[in-house]
Amino acid sequence: MQIGALTGYIDVAQIVLYVFWLFFAGLIFYLLRENKREGYPMIGDRPGARPEGWPGVPTPKTYILADGNTRVAPRPEPAEQVNAVPTAKWEGAARQPTGNPMLGGIGPGAYAQNRPDEPDHTFDDALPKIVPLRTVPDFWIANEDPNPYGMQVFGADWVYAGRVVDSWVDRSEVVIRYFEIALEGSSDHVLLPQHYAQINRKTRQIKVGAILGAQFNDVPRLRNAETITLLEEEKLVGYYAGGLMYATPTRLGPLL
Predict the structure, then answer these.
(1) Is residue 50 over pLDDT 70?
(2) Do 229 and 214 form a contact (C-beta atoms < 8 A)?
(3) Residue 36: CB partners within 8 Å, gap ≥ 6?
(4) Measured in Å, how far apart are the chain's first and last C-alpha atoms?
(5) Residue 42 and residue 56: Cα distance in Å, rounded?
(6) By percentage, how much of the chain surpasses pLDDT 70?
(7) What is the CA radius of gyration of the chain?
(8) Beta strand 152-154 pairing with 205-207
(9) Which domains are assigned to the chain?
(10) With bands split at pLDDT 50, 70 and 90, how would you rate the model's confidence at 80?
(11) Contacts made by residues 67-74, CB under 8 angstroms, sequence distance 24+
């Protein structure tokens, strides 16, 4: 073989294979880093712990949203408040709720505490996405569906909580998201997520198995009577979800 003649033992196919291996390894590295744009930097139980793993978190990138606002990812976020105390000193020990566990944002009622405190918007015209039917005359409940207006609402203990005075519709998905309830003995109105409502068309009653009748008084309120923000949705759904475990002492612990 002459000096400098590489083709005698390295062919084009072999070079292409090596280039593909390098490209594929770089692709895996890139995807692993991009996968850490949301949910990072992570915060550990111990002070100062930042479990990021390998590879590290990518450099921040700015995204332009549909409404013209910008969002940076990854982005530093304040630590979420955990309304519970560890039951033991070792890391990873179970936590005992403090205060009202249904409002504590823990367990089944945990929610994203750093969500924007502003309404979600429709894509085309940037209008508030979830609104009461009384504000959108172009939407109505189909005649073949039960109209919840005026239905009585009861908790899991069959204690009367109030009556439905309106429904909140998702303009983008064209579905009912919440029922608005006027509380008994109060001028306050609260929202009930539709998927927690057990509707009886014949008796025109709604049973909510997640919480008790008296616990409707602590349902998180809205800042605006005709819109709901992303953070308010988190708190609202988290309250009802927390009731699945914390509404009564009998719901705590294993079934067997």
Answers:
(1) no
(2) no
(3) 52, 56, 57, 58, 74
(4) 79
(5) 11
(6) 92
(7) 26
(8) parallel
(9) 114-251 (3.90.50.10)
(10) confident
(11) 67/121, 67/126, 73/37, 73/38, 74/36, 74/37, 74/38, 74/40, 74/41
Whether the CA torsion 71, 75, 79, 82 is positive or negative: it is positive
Neighbours of 120 (CB within 10 A): 16
Return all residues near 24 (Cβ < 8 A) that are at least 6 apart.
Answer: none
Q: Among residues 191, 168, 63, 62, which one has the least CA distance to residue 120? A: 168
The stretch 121-125 carries a mean pLDDT of: 86
Tell which phi-psi region holds residue 174, choosing left (phi > 0), alpha (psi between -120 and 50) or beta.
left
> Which pair of structure tokens corresponds to residue 234?
């988190």
| DSSP string computed for the chain | --TT-GGGT--HHHHHHHHHHHHHHHHHHHHHHHTTSSS-S---SSTT-----SS-PPPPEEEE-TTS-EEEES---PPPP--EEESSSSTT--EEE-S-GGGTT-GGG---TTS-SSB-B-TTT--BSEEEGGG-TT----TTS---TT-EEE-TT--EEEEEEEEEEETTTTEEEEEEEEETTSS-EEEEEGGG-EEETTTTEEE-SSS-GGGGGGSPPPSSTT--BHHHHHHHHHHHHHHHHHSSGGGSS---
The pTM assigned to this predicted structure is 0.80
The lowest-confidence range among 92-101, 141-150, 155-164 is 92-101
Q: 200 forms bridges with which residues in the sheet? A: 205
